[in-house]
Amino acid sequence: MGQKLKIAGWVAVGALAGALTTVQLQAVARGSLAPLPLEELQQFAAVFGMVKSDYVEPIDEKKLITDAISGMVSSLDPHSQYFDKKSFKEFREGTSGRFVGVGIEITMEDGLVKVVSPIEGSPAYRAGLKTNDLITKIDDTPVKGLTINDAVKRMRGEPSTKVQLTIFRKDENRSFPVTITREEIKTQSVKAKLVEPGYAWVRVSQFQERTVEDFTRKLEDIYKENPGLKGLVLDLRNDPGGLLDAAVAISAAFLPDNATVVTTNGQLEESKSIYKAAPEYYLRRSGNDPIRRLNEVSKGAFKKLPIVVLVNEGSASASEIVAGALQDHKRATILGSQTFGKGSVQTVRPLGPDTGLKITTARYYTPSGRSIQAKGIVPDVWVDETEEGNLFAALRTREADLEKHLGNGQDEAKPLSEADKAAEKQREQEREAARLRLEEEARKNPGGRLLPEFGSEKDFQLQQAIKQLKGQPVQVSKTLSERKEAKPEE
């Protein structure tokens, strides 16, 4: 391992209004560089000179170069990114699970900021922001034309300061302003409870610095009160990922000692790694090992306890590492729907004291050698999100839907077969039906929750997971099927 895990990094997807994304953090001294393409660099210098001298108004040289770097990096894939001074600071703050902002997970849609979900208990959550809300203005600045990082910067600020967001709610066909007071957001990444005697539910919503400690303490508490546990549901639905070492540690809580959790492979030698269920692969510093403590408290019960892992289209990256490891080692039944499919690793390389480059350096593979990139984890048991069917999952974006996404590197994308085309046509019809259903439900119950809360008594997939643990019949999906990466039509 050596230096490779000294600073653990993010393996995630999406962006928070606290800039939580992807990565394995490494500072690597490069001994040699490939020969530079001098002719192309001369052309770049010529264009730079023409823009500087001929453009209609003066141009800031530093901004011009920064924009050129950003454009070069963003053209690679959806997850590579150049960090300027402010975004680099925000990124490093984000790994702690604390930041000052409004508290929403966001993405971009049609040039606008789209709310993926408000963080529970955050100012945005209390202000009533909803999934799929579009932010059209931040204070007096139109969002159209901003990058997602620019939008994040504008929503973040000092504690107790205010920001006004103009919201367009599509299902209500109206725009309205919301003034939100910024505060420090402390994301709670682990929830747990006893669903019924003998069966526990633990939800990990993101892999952060405190996740492993919180995870083990909650399991310890459950075990102390209920030493006769018969089964556990590990809920990774809508978990976008996070710290790689946290994912390795959570896997180690259930796997045999030294079992392979994940491997990575890329061009550079340091990108070729194997991560195992052992302290040296997930502890950042010597000292307290929460996983060992959990095993001692529970007398190794969690190494043998039957497990069901709940996943869906929003389960990505680090959560896919956990699901894939438990699936390959046959330590858990994976239940739900096909996951997001982000199987790439990004490395952050500092470019100076306050800027950095996040660049895709490797793909990761499950213990059996499967690449999840643009494919995801295929569940062992397909289950819809509600008893009435898969109501809104068809609207969710996956890695394979992203422009310029990295290929699988294992299974060559092929033109879809007739059966695959028919399945895609069916999915398109389901997407349209889901859109119409979403609009209708929102009209009937404005501001209401459209799907039951994870872990609630009405959580259909959780009910099916408990049945799976009990050996009872599970209501499997009649419509869900594996999505394959298609070769683009020429």
UniProtKB/TrEMBL annotation:
GO terms for molecular function: endopeptidase activity; serine-type peptidase activity. Keywords: Hydrolase, Protease, Serine protease. The keyword Disulfide bond does not apply. Residues 407-444, 480-490 have a biased composition (Basic and acidic residues). InterPro entries: ClpP/crotonase-like_dom_sf (IPR029045), CtpA/B_N (IPR055210), PDZ (IPR001478), PDZ_sf (IPR036034), Peptidase_S41A (IPR004447), Tail-specific_protease (IPR005151). It holds the Pfam family PDZ_2. GO terms for biological process: proteolysis; signal transduction. Residues 88-156 form the PDZ domain. This is Peptidase S41. It comes from Malikia granosa.
